[in-house]
Amino acid sequence: MKKQTAGRNNLGDFAPKFAELNDDVLFGEVWSREDKMSLHDRSLITVSSLLTQGVPQLKAHMKIARDNGVSKEEMIELITQLSFYAGWPKTWSAFDLAKEIYE
Fold first, then answer.
1. In this structure, are residues 98 and 72 in contact, taking their beta carbons and an 8 Å threshold?
2. Same-domain pairing of 47 and 97
């Protein structure tokens, strides 16, 4: 897994401890445990969670999911499945993002 620096790049001066936790713990320790769960599966779980919350980080994590091998077809199925649980407006928005990222 490539080293994450988004926390330090975006918040390093403003919130250095949060940036450290983001880059070193969340991505450095948790995401890097590929012997426990693949990056592909971690991405599916993360996108699902973010979609249900309707947060802006969904777009970035959809790109990470694509880079981690989540196919367009898998993303479409994920969003379709969640439409009945997360709400129709959130899934419409998620489809807009997925079209942008996968096309």
1. yes
2. yes
Rg, Å, the chain Cα set: 14
Per residue in 3-21, pLDDT (tens digit) is 778 889 989 899 999 999 9
Task: Tell me: do 49 and 17 sit in the same domain.
Answer: no
Q: What is the pLDDT of residues 38-78, one digit of tens each?
A: 999 999 999 999 999 999 999 999 999 999 999 999 999 99
Task: List the domain range (segments joined by +) for residue 74.
Answer: 37-102
Name the average pLDDT for the chain.
94
> Same structural domain for residues 62 and 13?
no
| Per-residue pLDDT reduced to its tens digit, 19-33 | 999 999 998 899 999
